[in-house]
Specification:
Length: 346
């Protein structure tokens, strides 16, 4: 049972306690917050309760960022697992039904073959007219039965094929949801890990270039604290949209975590990747942010970016670490700049 299900009886007490906890601990009053507190107080998700209890022990307020992290880590993934389990079970049922139908068809075909064999053996060339008519009628009945059975099987196979297609689409939708960041609609860290491994396997075989850009929004925490989480979310969406506008056709763009983004550039050497990173940085710099609720101008957003290229023997970890080191160098050197692995201190 998930925290969002409507419950009655004693569960109304949990609902009241969840609302009281939101007020007591300074949590935002929106649906995710209620679901997190309800799941904790009802004991529905023990892992969430353990994580939340650890935060409560620090005495800090349970603010929006923490609520979102708990929701994404425990409630959303729990729902996705339930959907995947349900869809998989349905698919297994369809496959079992299909296997049963095929088994019945094989049995019926054997019976049809046996009937034809018996009829052929009992139909002598010199048979009387009455015997010949009975022999032909036996063949006709057996054939009609076989034709009818095959028509039913074909209809069942078509229905089953349609159901399996629908289930595959549902599984694919669940897979995509599990690999998508809901705030920016970019692929998330899970998708990044999968795609980077896939591209590393490819370049090890064909030797094509592969580069990685790690990008971080400068002073994002300070900006978040000054203007609020909703405006911070607006910044994240702006950066994501800019990256998509500049690179969507040639790159795998992901929200790596928090205010950090990762961009995989297949078939792009280091120098060209640096130019693409600079194009993103400069485009973000030209876009002035306006607070939607008040139309207040909040200034411009800047990015620091690190770029690394695949080297023979690289793993996902080593390539990410080198791009991260370049990003940290950009931060140390004043932010709002792009640094490649060639700019690292040796």
């Amino acid at each position: 049972m998930t925290a969002s299900e409507t419950l009655g009886g004693a569960d109304s007490d949990v609902a009241e306690k969840a609302i009281a906890a939101i007020r007591l601990h300074g949590s935002p009053a929106y649906p995710r917050s209620y679901e997190v507190w309800y799941a904790h107080l009802s004991g529905a998700l023990p892992n969430l309760s353990a994580a939340l209890s650890q935060e409560l022990a620090t005495g800090a307020a349970i603010e929006a960022a923490m609520i979102d992290r708990l929701y994404e880590r425990f409630i959303r993934t729990d729902r996705l697992a339930q959907v995947a389990d349900q869809t998989s079970a349905q698919m297994l049922d369809e496959i079992a039904s299909l296997s049963g139908a095929i088994g019945e068809a094989l049995d019926a075909s054997e019976r049809y073959h046996d009937a034809i064999l018996v009829a052929s053996q009992e139909g002598p060339a010199s048979a009387e007219r009455t015997q010949l008519r009975e022999w032909v009628e036996t063949l006709v009945v057996a054939t009609r039965s076989e034709v009818s059975r095959k028509a039913k099987l074909e209809a069942q196979l078509r229905d089953t094929a349609r159901e399996i297609r629908n289930l595959k689409e549902a599984l694919e939708a669940t897979r995509i949801e599990a690999q998508t960041d809901p705030l920016t609609s970019l692929p998330n860290r899970r998708h990044f890990d999968e795609m980077l491994k896939r591209h590393l396997d490819r370049v090890e075989n064909d030797g094509a270039p592969l580069t990685l850009i790690m990008a971080d929004i400068d002073y994002f925490k300070r900006f978040n604290d000054e203007h609020g989480h909703l405006t911070g979310d607006q910044v994240l969406r702006l950066v994501a949209r800019t990256m998509n506008d500049r690179l969507a056709d040639e790159a795998v763009i992901t929200r790596y975590g928090g205010e950090e983004f990762a961009i995989i550039l297949p078939d792009v050497p280091l120098n060209e990747a640096r130019h693409r990173a600079e194009a993103v940085r400069q485009t973000v710099l030209t876009r002035e942010l306006v607070k939607r609720s008040t139309n207040e101008k909040l200034g411009r957003i800047t990015l620091s970016l690190g770029v690394a290229a695949y080297k023979l023997g690289d793993t996902s970890i080593s390539l990410v670490e080198r791009a991260d080191q370049a990003l940290l160098t950009a931060k140390r050197n004043g932010r709002n700049r792009t640094v490649t692995q060639d700019g690292l201190t040796r």
